[in-house]
Amino acid sequence: MPTPFFCHPVNSEDVVSTRLYFVNASLQRVTFSSSVGVSLPCPAGGAPHAVLRWYLASGDDIYDVPHIRHVHANGTLQLYPFSPSAYNSIIHDNEYFCTAENQAGKIRSPSIHVKAGKGQQHPSIHPSIHPSIHPSSIHPSIHPSIHPSILTLT
Question: Model pTM?
Fold first, then answer.
């Protein structure tokens, strides 16, 4: 009589599901006050942990500009409050996108137009299709002398 064969995974505890996903891919445009600044979390994630990176729409890597622009380790892009003399259209009026990468591959968010305005205007968020973004996911930067503005969805 033939011996039956049984198949079973070895080290099955090491088998991990890998995936990449968008938290919110509908964000199209963010306008913020130069006196307040803004923080944008990368709208993507993954399991296991994905490496999140920001780029200009041209594909150029984002680099930190002291006291102007910073990408945090958690993937949040922060544009700090700035004076009119520090305005730079490459930083303050440009399209950005974020990527998430892990063992499952790499995904790219749609481009987000980020534009700084002048004065005390409220930041506004413009989703492309559905206003599914929650105000708690995009934050005005906190400056010691300024209270953060209330976000409005349009």
Answer: 0.69
Quick one: tokens of 56?
A: 């200009």
19-120: CATH topology is Immunoglobulin-like (2.60.40)
Q: What is the torsion angle, in degrees rounded to the nearest 10, for the CA atoms of residue 45, residue 50, residue 51 and residue 54?
A: -20
The phi, psi pair for 98, rounded to 5°, reads -120, 150
N-to-C CA span, the chain: 74
Residue found under tokens 């622009």: 69
What does the pLDDT read at residue 16? 59
Confidence class for position 26, pLDDT limits 50, 70, 90: confident
Structure token pair of residue 33: 């006050």
Give burial (CB, 10 Å; 0-12/13-18/19+) of 112.
buried
137 is written with which tokens?
């996911």
Task: Using only the alpha carbons of the chain, give its radius of gyration.
Answer: 20
